[in-house]
User: Fold this.
Amino acid sequence: MKILVADDDPDLLDLVAYALGQAGYLVVKAGDGNAALSRFDSEAPDLVILDINMPGQSGFDVCAAIRGRSSAPVMMLTARGEEQDLVRALDLGADDYPHQAVQPAHAAGEGQGAAAPRATGTQRRPRHGWPHHARCR
Assistant:
């Protein structure tokens, strides 16, 4: 499985990419929103993990753009914990919104779960008590 990880914090980007690589995933990295969209178009990843606060285009903007052209699962991985950010991300079509304090292995496990329903046509149910969004109602 190929995973696009986009974050403007190079240390966090490298950490998440390393953890996912160690778990056997092919990782494509992007350091800002514009690069994320460019890499999405050129690499056709199976899953996208986005930070919200990125230069160029925010993770919200990138999520909306991806959702307009693909059904690839999108996870928003961010340090921001405001409920309105969660609601906005899910309304834009994000499939999950774990807090950035989670371990990279958690992101890998969530990514595997997020990718499965799109491939099988089934609907994913949040496993960790995340609020349901429009597609889960």
Observations:
- The two ends are 28 Å apart (CA to CA).
- Confidence is low (pLDDT under 50) at residues 117-137.
- Strands lie at 2-6, 26-30, 47-50, 74-76.
